[in-house]
C-alpha cells in the first residue's frame, strides 16, 4: 500500500554536480554558491590525505579517500550559509581547512 507520505517520482533533470578538490589545508573551491531548493552533489577528490568534510548544521560528513571520488549529496536547502570543515586532523593548518555553501534565494 502506498504511504500518504510517499514522494512523487524524482524531479526531471539531472542533479547538479560540483567538483571539489581537497588538499592540505584547503578545499578548492572553498565557497560554493547554490540555489535555494535545489539539491546538489559534490564530487570530492582528495589529493594527499584522508581529509574529512563535515557539515555540522546538516548532520552530514564524509571521509575523502585519495584516489577515489567521494559523492556528498546535499539536499535542497533554504537560503543561508552552511559551513563545512575538515574533521580529520591533517597537520599544522588543519584548523584553517574549511569552506562554505552559500545558498541564494
Ligand atoms: Cu584536515
- Tell me roughly what share of residues is in helical segments: under 10%
Contiguous helical run count: 0
Most strands sheet = 4 strands, mixed
Structurally, the number of domains stands at 1
The appropriate CATH architecture is: Sandwich
CATH topology: Immunoglobulin-like
Return the CATH class: Mainly Beta
What is the ordering of alpha helices and beta strands?
A: EEEEEEEEE
So what's the overall shape? Answer: globular
Under CATH, the homologous superfamily reads: Cupredoxins -  blue copper proteins
The number of distinct β-strands equals 9
**Strand percentage:** over 45%
Query: What bound compounds does this protein have?
Result: copper (II) ion
Q: Give the termini separation.
A: 37 Å
Main features:
9 strands; binds copper (II) ion; Immunoglobulin-like; 105 residues; 4-stranded mixed β-sheet; mainly beta; 3-stranded mixed β-sheet
What does the model show?
This protein has 105 residues and is mainly beta. It has one domain: Immunoglobulin-like (Sandwich), CATH 2.60.40.420. Helix content is 0%, strand content 50%. The protein contains no helices and 9 strands. The protein has strands at residues 16-23, 26-28, 31-35, 40-46, 51-55, 60-64, 69-74, 80-85, 98-104. The strands form 3 sheets. The chain has a 4-stranded mixed sheet, with no helix packed on it. It is globular, with a radius of gyration of 15 Å. It starts with 15 loop residues before the first strand and ends with a strand. The relative contact order is 0.28. It binds copper (II) ion. Residues 51, 86, 88, 90, 94, 97 line the site of copper (II) ion.
Amino acid at each position: 500500500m502506498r504511504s500518504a507520505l510517499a514522494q512523487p517520482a524524482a524531479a526531471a533533470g539531472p542533479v547538479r554536480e560540483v567538483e571539489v578538490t581537497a588538499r592540505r589545508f584547503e578545499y578548492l573551491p572553498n565557497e560554493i554558491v547554490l540555489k535555494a531548493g535545489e539539491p546538489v552533489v559534490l564530487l570530492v577528490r582528495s589529493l594527499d590525505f584522508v581529509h574529512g568534510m563535515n557539515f555540522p548544521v546538516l548532520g552530514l560528513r564524509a571521509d575523502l579517500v585519495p584516489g577515489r571520488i567521494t559523492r556528498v549529496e546535499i539536499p535542497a536547502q533554504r537560503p543561508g550559509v552552511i559551513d563545512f570543515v575538515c574533521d580529520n586532523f591533517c597537520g599544522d593548518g588543519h584548523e584553517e581547512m574549511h569552506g562554505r555553501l552559500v545558498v541564494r534565494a
